[in-house]
Amino acid sequence: xxxxxxxxxxxxxxxxxxxxxxxxxxxxxxxxxxxxxxxxxxxxxxxxxxxxxxxxxxxxxxxxxxxxxxxxxxxxxxxxxxxxxxxxxxxxxxxxxxxxxxxxxxxxxxxxxxxxxxxxxxxxxxxxxxxxxxxxxxxxxxxxxxxxxxxxxxxxxxxxxxxxxxxxxxxxxxxxxxxxxxxxxxxxxxxxxxxxxxxxxxxxxxxxxxxxxxxxx
Length: 217
Prior knowledge:
alpha/beta; Rossmann fold
């Protein structure tokens, strides 16, 4: 049985990590197949080491293309070591970020070219595309306000040093991606209360995974 590859995307402050923490146990309870949650950058031992380099706030001299290449390298190792084996085993793989993040953050945010970053990542992934992407959308000002309000509760990384203009470019790129590929990318309003966002995500997953769904779980 072929597995199902689902990604979650969103700008900073969209609440992906919190949503996934609440969502995954509910999803796993409803499905007849195993659910594997993973993340990017990271997800595999070598990829996690690259994550440390990328997100270390001390690495202010990192060039934008170096950053994009490191994300692609981390992604490649994660894909071959974790994602592909799980998909071959028939699992439902849920990944916190994938190629769309690089297109939005490095391509648009860093302004090095969305098409160039996409091409780089198509090489890194061998063209692997998620079956379904849940995009949690939040205005940049709202997302940044959330980050500041919870700064003591989360890791401060290099991306947190960026301007609102950077984050607005990132969000605009995500919205373009969602408009260009509505069959794959489902947009969820992440300004709603957390419980409503989780419920909306679960409903979208129910529709997509209907054949594996256990109604009475």
